[in-house]
Amino acid sequence: MMQTPKTQYIPIDSIEDLDLSKLSIGQLNNKYIDKDNNRYALKFNKENRKIEVVRIQMKSSGTPTSEKSKSEETAVKTEGLIKSKTRSLEEIMAEKKSIDSEEVTSENVEVLDEADVENTESDDDHDFDLSIDYKKETPGSKYNESFRTEGNFQIEEKNFLSEIIKEFEKNKDRISAMLNNLKNSKIFEVTGDPSENQNIIGNLSREIEVEIFQNMDKIINFYKELTSYPRPSGYYSSKYDKTKKDILSKTTSDKEIMALITRWEMQELLFPIHQKLKKLLKNILDIMNTKTDNHLKQLQYKEQQMFTDAKNAAIFMLQDIDSVLMKIEQWKIRSST
Predict the structure, then answer these.
(1) N or C terminus: which one in the chain shows less Cβ crowding within 10 Å?
(2) Beta carbons within 8 Å of 262's beta carbon, 6+ residues apart
(3) Which residues lie across from 316 on neighbouring strands?
(4) Where is pLDDT greater, at 199 or 46?
(5) Given 3-state DSSP classes, what are the helix, strand and coil percentages for the chain, each rounded to the nearest 5?
């Protein structure tokens, strides 16, 4: 479906016709009208990162009673359909073929006045790179805040680390997709390249490859080694200070010794690499922010979309990285008590 002006509605038989898995970039401002004259819009919920279908309540003082009753009956009938059309951004980005079986609560269903839809369009007017996979939950967010019991702590810690590493692996695809969108937008070709060698995308790609990707691979492989095929504990502990060596000497179980070593090694490596990634992404975002609306107007519409997608991807990743850094800090504090 093509993007339409704000004042136009796209005719549909019912909201069953809306396949949100095929939602394309720039369609969040589309509005629809079914054969019963019910109107719908799309909305991005910033709090839970879900794309939602909302029904628009028309303010018409001259509506006959019979039509009003029919509208109310239709609202009851369509409420369930609206729920089934509420999709998470993660599902859309992964381009799933089927509707997720997970039920969506009634809190995700809204009825808006037509004026409200117009007023909120500017707030929710975001374009997203649907090829970039984002999780709904921040790594570690689903785990219990209470890491006090040692046995429970080790289980939660293992799950937490697994989630961090999984997100870590996905970051390579996210960053590559972001840079690819930035390159294909041709923003620097058309409006000027600020780098000395006139190859800013190439420069950024090389820097990220050396500073982030290569180190990411080393950390991921090291984590797999520690958890799947570790060397003798003495190989890792030989570099530790007296305090850590004393702790290990008082630990009798080989499993617990390796759990401690894994904890210390990952705490030492994960925080700095995320800090470095944050710094590079902030630098990329600062470069993109030098381009104004006048610069964007020089691009084709599709190229404008790609630039916006790259910018939104950088913003989302920075938010996620800030949250991960906070979780790692909390983890370090809990593990030291």
Answers:
(1) C
(2) 161, 223, 226, 227
(3) none
(4) 199
(5) 60, 5, 35
- Residues present in the chain in total: 337
- By percentage, how much of the chain surpasses pLDDT 90? 39
Average pLDDT over residues 117-143: 41
Pairing of strands 50-57, 31-33: unpaired
Residue linked to tokens 């939104």: 312
Distance CA 247, CA 46 (A): 45
pTM flag (> 0.70): no
**Which is it for the CA torsion 216, 222, 224, 226, positive or negative?**
negative
pLDDT of residue 55: 83
Q: For 299-314, what is each residue's pLDDT tens digit?
A: 999 999 999 999 999 9
Dist. CA 159–CA 156, nearest whole Å: 5
Q: What ranges do the domains of the chain cover? A: 10-120, 150-335
Q: Are 112 and 41 in contact (CB under 8 A)?
A: yes
Pairing of strands 39-45, 31-33: antiparallel
